[in-house]
Design a protein that fits this description.
The chain contains no helices and eight strands. It has about 100 residues and is mostly beta strands. It has a single domain, classed as Sandwich (Jelly Rolls), CATH 2.60.120. Strand 4 and strand 5 form a beta hairpin.
């Protein structure tokens, strides 16, 4: 069975960074805005020069959950005043 899991243990991310996934599948995101300013999110496969997986923006908030194959890590860039994002990966659990 595949389950979606948060990539981070500390909650939402801001700014830029690279995260390792629980497997090879990026599972989606919750992009949060402050209701006034535009929040942006760009997610790339592996590094700042990798293929773009997500390029989106919102004022109120946006959530998308769908599997996207990656190299095992992602680079993210969250922008905008008050913007943050939760990032997820799909994990295969064998019982």
């Amino acid at each position: 069975m595949a389950n979606i899991k948060s990539i981070t243990t500390t909650g939402a991310v801001t700014g830029t960074g690279t995260l390792s996934l629980h497997g090879l599948i990026f599972g989606g995101f919750d992009l949060n805005g402050d209701g006034t300013n535009t929040a942006t999110l760009v997610v790339r496969d592996g590094s700042v020069t990798g293929d773009i997986l997500v390029d989106t923006s919102t004022i109120q908030g946006k959530s998308i959950y769908l599997p996207m194959k990656t190299s095992g890590s992602i680079y993210y860039a969250v922008g905008g005043t008050g913007g943050d994002a939760m990032l997820y990966s799909w994990a295969l659990e064998v019982s």
